[in-house]
Specification:
Blueprint: E1 3-7, H1 12-23, E2 27-32, E3 51-55, H2 61-70, E4 73-76, H3 83-88, H4 90-110, E5 114-120, H5 148-168, E6 172-177, E7 180-181, H6 192-202, E8 206-209, E9 215-216, E10 219-220, H7 221-232, E11 241-244, E12 250-251, H8 252-263, E13 269-272, H9 274-277, E14 287-288, H10 293-299, H11 307-320
Parallel strand pairs: 1-2, 1-4, 2-3, 4-5, 5-6, 6-11, 7-10, 8-13, 9-14
Antiparallel strand pairs: 9-12
Helix pairs in contact: 1-7, 2-4, 4-5, 6-8, 6-11, 8-11
Length: 325
């Protein structure tokens, strides 16, 4: 069985990936500095003899090099995430995303360990040509608008990963995530579904930023985890970029109404202008929907859960872990 390193393994996606790989009998090594992840996410895995974790930053190069050396493949998920965090800590966002990825690729390249680099739908920026295909142009806003620093940092991660493949023949797979959601996701950094669910269950106003007409496509974390592991097991994925997500969109207003209905909440839905929610001049993408034909063609990927089922699972999670309320 393979030995796998997951950077950011105590995060939302990382913890679900750890679970899945342990189920398959893999040895899982996790490194996470808990800046956005949580020890609670991996608490239930600690007693598994095949699970090993280090609470440290990937910027600790000697430790990172040792972990990469021990493992056969690397899932690089460690990143600064969430619009709120990006607006509040732009320096940390850029440094974590670019320098962290640089170190992972550098360490992996020494012994040519296969690496999956997690990217984001944000790299499409202000491109209006929806649904997004992997070879579409990156259209970013002004550098004065800090909101675009995240998209730019992740685009550089992609350039760097693909450069390592072309120049040094390091096997890399780049995956662009589109609004992955499910149990254990926190609303602390502006993630919309956990925030809406929490507000609805507490009877607080459900706060929609902007006019609510912006649409997103949400994908269940279990579908994403299966998809990325299959990509990593497929030699034809090397050197390629893949969207992973759900083809069906929902507006944020519709999402708020659906959360209210599922939770049977009496919460009022209120609208807050972007300037008040984030920063003056904040720009958002009106639609963010992936074309998933490329990943479907290679590994037969199809999302199995619709938004209603996903929300029911998230609500159930919040109710079973009252600490989050």
């Amino acid at each position: 069985m393979a030995k796998v390193l997951i950077t950011g393994g105590a995060g939302f996606i990382g913890s679900h990936l750890s679970e899945e790989l342990l189920k398959r009998g893999e040895d899982v090594f996790v490194i996470d500095d808990l800046s956005t992840g949580s020890i609670e996410n991996i608490e239930h895995l600690k007693n598994n003899p095949k699970f090993h974790y280090s609470i440290d930053t990937i910027k600790n190069e000697p430790l990172l090099a040792e972990l990469v050396d021990r493992c056969d493949v690397v899932y690089h998920l460690a990143a600064a995430v969430g619009v709120k965090l990006i607006i509040e800590s732009p320096v940390n966002t850029i440094e974590t995303n670019i320098y962290g990825t640089e170190l992972v690729l550098k360490c992996a390249n020494k012994k040519k360990k296969k690496v999956m680099v997690a990217s984001t739908s944000e790299v499409y920026g202000k491109n209006n040509n929806v649904p997004f295909k992997e070879d579409y142009d990156v259209v970013l806003g002004s550098t004065k608008n800090g909101r675009w620093s995240y998209a730019c940092s992740k685009a550089i991660d992609e350039f760097l990963a693909l450069a390592y493949w072309r120049e040094k023949k390091l096997p890399v797979v780049v995956v662009r995530f589109f609004n992955t959601v499910g149990p254990r996701q926190t609303g602390r950094y502006g993630m919309v579904i956990p925030n809406f669910v929490k507000q609805a269950l507490l009877g607080h106003p459900i706060t929609v930023y902007g006019d609510g007409k912006q649409s997103r496509s949400f994908t269940y974390v279990g579908d994403v985890v299966k998809g990325i592991t299959e990509l990593m097991n497929n030699p034809k994925a090397v050197g390629e970029v893949f969207n992973i997500g759900h083809g069906k969109e929902i507006t944020i207003s519709e999402l708020a109404a659906l959360v209210k209905k599922i939770t049977n909440s009496k919460s009022e839905i209120v609208y807050i202008p972007y300037d008040k929610a984030y920063e003056e001049g904040f720009e958002d993408m009106q639609r963010r929907s992936p074309d998933i034909s490329k990943i479907n063609k290679l590994i037969g990927y199809k999302p199995t859960m619709d938004i209603k089922e996903i929300l029911e699972k998230v609500v159930e999670y919040f109710l079973s872990t009252n600490a989050h309320l």
